[in-house]
Structure formats: C-alpha cells, structure tokens
Amino acid sequence: MPFPARKSLDVEFGALVLRMAEGENTAFKALSALVSKTLDGIEALPVIPREVEDILTISQAERHRWLKDGRLKSAGTRTVKLRGRAKAVTFHVFDPRHIEDVLDRDLPSLWREDDAQAAAENRRRTAGKAARTRAGKNNQPAPDAQRGDALDLPLSGWDAFELDGLLR
C-alpha cells in the first residue's frame, strides 16, 4: 500500500475503515481490492506469543507454564533474526483456532484456579516436610552424645555366640 494512502485506512471498533474523497472512485476501488487481497487468508496465519497474551489476557509466565505442561498447544516455532541483534530469536507460534477455542471456553480462568490449588497443595506439602525435618532435629541428641552412646551400646547378635560358649 503506498504510504500516502495509508492515512486513509483506519481501524475503528475492530473494523477497517477506508476513507477517501468522493472523486477518487478508481483509487478507492484499487485500495479496497488491495486491502481485501491482503486480508484474504489472514485468519489462518499463526498467532505470535505477544498476541496470545493480549488475546487471552494472560501473563508471560502463565503462557510459558501452560505451554510447558501442554494446556496451550504450539503450532510450531519460528526463528527470526531481528535487526540489531547478533543472534536469531526462536519462539512458539499458536494456531488461531486453538486460541479462539481456549478463549471461547474461558479456559484461562479455569487453569488459574487449578494452578492456585496446585500451589496451595505444594505449600502445604512443603510446610509439612519442613515441620517433620524440624521435629526430627529436635528429638535427636547432640552429635557428641551420639558418638559416645554408639560406642557404649553392645552389638546386636552377640548373645547367640555367648550362649554357645564361643565367647570366652
């Protein structure tokens, strides 16, 4: 699209609006055909991570976590070399139909509830483990006393030898 013509194309309320003067019918038809051709098939293009976060109103950490455990399904990866960077950047892209399905079923809110329950369970389990560790440390005698007690204790199993008269 020529740069001067870009000023006549606006996005309003989720719709593209092409505004031109009344006398420019041929230019209007040409630009509308160009816009239609450009938009043809756009619904099948993969969705990039930043757009997924915006569409589903999720954080980057949630996207990473849900992608890792398989709740968000990747449609593949893309690698791009951005201007001014030494290395190429690889990121996951997503199928727009899958993202639409996730949005329609309001899965992010359900996933957040599941994550909150899992985090609470992990905290409870960790607190119990820490309490058991603290309780175990308090019941054990000091290390010096342990070594002395171990030397004073008779070894188990020697009673049988003593009964047989083998220990003299």
Give the N-to-C terminal Cα separation.
107 Å
Instruction: Strand order, main sheet: write it out.
Output: 1-2
Low-pLDDT windows of residues: none
Number of strands: 4
Q: Specify the overall morphology.
A: rod-shaped
Radius of gyration: 34 Å
Task: Briefly characterize the structure.
56% of the residues lie in helices and 12% in strands.
What does this structure look like?
The chain has 168 residues and is of the alpha+beta class. It is built from eight helices and four strands. The chain has a two-stranded antiparallel ribbon with strand order 1-2. A two-stranded antiparallel sheet has the order 3-4. The radius of gyration is 34 Å and the shape is rod-shaped. 4% of the residues are buried. The model has no long low-confidence stretch (mean pLDDT 85).
Annotation keywords:
two-stranded antiparallel ribbon; 8 helices; 4 strands; alpha+beta; about 170 residues; about 10% strand; about 55% helix
Secondary structure blueprint with pairings:
Elements: H1 3-6, E1 9-12, E2 15-18, H2 25-39, H3 49-56, H4 60-68, E3 74-80, E4 89-94, H5 96-104, H6 107-139, H7 143-152, H8 158-163
Antiparallel strand pairs: 1-2, 3-4
